[in-house]
Design brief:
The complex is a heterodimer of chains A (136) and B (340). Chain A is mainly beta and 136 residues long. Chain A is built from two helices and eight strands; from the N terminus they run H-H-E-E-E-E-E-E-E-E. In chain A, the strands form two sheets. Chain A has a five-stranded antiparallel β-sheet with strand order 6-5-4-7-8. The N and C termini of chain A lie far apart (53 Å). Chain B folds into two domains: 184 residues, Thiolase/Chalcone synthase (Peroxisomal Thiolase, Chain A, domain 1), CATH 3.40.47; 143 residues, 3-Layer(aba) Sandwich (Peroxisomal Thiolase, Chain A, domain 1). In chain B, helix 3 runs parallel beside helix 4 and helix 6 packs across helix 7. Classes of the chains: A mainly beta (136), B alpha/beta (340). At the A-B interface, helix 2, strand 7 and strand 8 of A face helix 3 and helix 4 of B.
């Protein structure tokens, strides 16, 4: 039988970031980094980098809705992609789980644990963080 | 020590399913189930397990690195081989120093996981154990199971100190009864129709419940609440009446009319809904049922700490209140019933 092509190593390396938004923080200048950085561009050799788990709450900076997706995501359409500014400062791209049209710039979001994608019927399942609107 | 629940926010009304299959308007009344919880397109029993476990950790504000065992009970584990418990452990931030395994015993895999944790904690082999019952259960289109097969889960952290409720005693009853099964590789389970009632559900639930009361010398009047496995809204009141429990005792934990049968989650969500309103000192009688078949009975006494931590995580009624309704077409998309 042919061995299937898997991206398991790449997914596995990113598990801390995908599941729990693990980034870094420079204790010298109080800057937060996601994805994690080992060097603080502000402080250089004076940096004091430590691991930091982001709260996951943030604000939608801009967003779009995908109706025509690549093969891996075509069963999830329509879905919303957004640039989210985490409360600690860094920005990341993520899905906002909400009906199209309900995502707004400036909307507050919080993290949820969801399936990000699957390698077809036989491959591994990519779990990770998406966002949902904070109600009220 | 703590508990947490997750129920997806989507619902489909039983009447909507009956409309598609022209099964008449009295299906809902017959089952005493009005609607059932449906997972989002990107939810499965692992994501539900993680959300419930995170809620349990949040509720008691404990350090997840203390957890020494994770047992996840489900009949819809996303992988046939690759434990759901490993995903849960990573996602809630445990250390890597824990043991894990996935459990399967139809609808009672969750309570079996509680028993396993209880054994490890009681024998001082671990500090804390995490037991989860979670399912995105399947019913073949047009089959009777489709009306009730729902999605949801509950997580319990079992420890020996700072308890919110004490498990006083347990009793189990197990036989080889083929009332419901799913063969390897098959997408939907099969069942014995009416055979699932008397020789399966009623016999096992009643035997485990009576066995526990006999062992403890207790009777239904000694309990403030009772929770029985709830495949529909009809079976639990009937078995409760047979055993001598009242409608009032089972009312707080009878959530199946609004969320459907969450399989491995069902008894544990019913217990959570009861803990959501139980007062210190009150006692809860719990009996699960898993096809195949077996029942686990628990006698539980609520402690003072419950009032301190109850509000730290969402209650079952918060999940029931936030429902969004789907029609059958959207339901089919959510459940992956559409094949391309």
């Amino acid at each position: 039988m042919m061995t299937m092509k898997t991206r398991a190593p790449r997914f596995w390396r990113c598990i801390p970031q995908r599941y729990n938004l693990i980034g870094t923080h420079c204790a010298a200048c109080d800057e937060y980094y996601f994805p994690p950085r080992n060097i603080c561009p502000n402080c250089r050799r004076d940096a004091r980098i430590e691991e930091y788990k982001f709260k996951g709450t943030g604000t939608v900076i801009t967003h779009t809705t995908i109706y025509s997706a690549t093969e891996d995501f075509e069963r999830q359409t329509p879905y919303n992609l957004a640039i989210i500014e985490l409360d600690e400062g860094p920005r990341l791209t993520g899905q906002v789980v909400a009906p199209p049209g309900e995502v707004k710039i400036g909307m507050h979001v919080r993290p949820v644990f969801r399936i990000l994608g699957k390698e077809g019927e036989r491959g591994i399942i990519y779990y990770g963080t998406k966002f949902i609107p904070v109600e009220g | 020590m703590s508990y947490g629940v997750y129920i997806p926010k989507y619902r489909i009304r039983v009447d909507e399913i009956a409309r598609v299959w022209a099964h008449g308007e009295d299906v809902s009344e017959g089952l005493k189930v009005f609607e059932k919880a449906v997972p989002d397109v990107d939810e499965d029993s692992a994501t539900i397990a993680v959300e419930a476990a995170r809620a349990a950790v949040l509720r008691s504000n404990l350090d997840p690195r203390r957890i020494g065992a994770i047992y996840v009970g489900s009949e819809s584990h996303p992988y046939a081989v690759k434990p759901t418990g490993t995903i849960v452990g990573e996602a809630i931030g445990t250390s890597s120093k824990f043991t894990a395994a996935d459990f399967e015993f139809a609808c009672k895999a969750g309570t079996a996981a509680v028993q396993a944790c209880l054994g490890l904690v009681a024998s001082n082999l671990i500090d804390l154990g995490l037991a989860i019952g979670t399912d995105v259960s399947q019913g073949a289109p047009g089959d009777a199971l489709e009306y009730t097969a729902a999605a949801g889960g509950a997580a319990y952290i079992i420890g020996s100190k700072d308890l919110i409720a004490e498990i006083e005693a347990i009793f189990s009853f197990t036989t080889d009864t083929p009332d419901f099964w799913r063969r390897e590789g098959m997408p939907y389970p099969e069942h014995g129709g009416r055979f699932t009632g008397e020789p399966a559900y009623y016999k096992h639930v009643a035997s485990a419940a009576l066995g526990l009361m006999e062992k403890m010398g207790s009777s239904p009047e000694d309990y403030d609440f009772a929770v029985f496995h709830q495949p529909n809204g009809k079976f639990p009141p009937r078995v409760a009446r047979k055993l001598g429990f009242t409608a009032e005792q089972i009312a707080p934990g009878l959530v199946v009319p609004w969320i459907g049968n969450t399989y491995s989650g069902a008894t544990l969500i019913g217990l959570a809904a009861t803990l959501d309103q139980a007062l210190p000192g009150q006692r809860i009688f719990v009996t699960s049922f898993g096809s195949g078949a077996g029942s686990d009975a628990f006698s539980i006494e609520v402690t003072d700490r419950i009032d301190e931590i109850r509000q730290n995580a969402p209650l079952v009624r918060d999940f029931i209140a936030g429902a969004k309704y789907l029609d059958y077409a959207m339901y089919a998309k959510h459940k992956g019933k559409l094949r391309l």
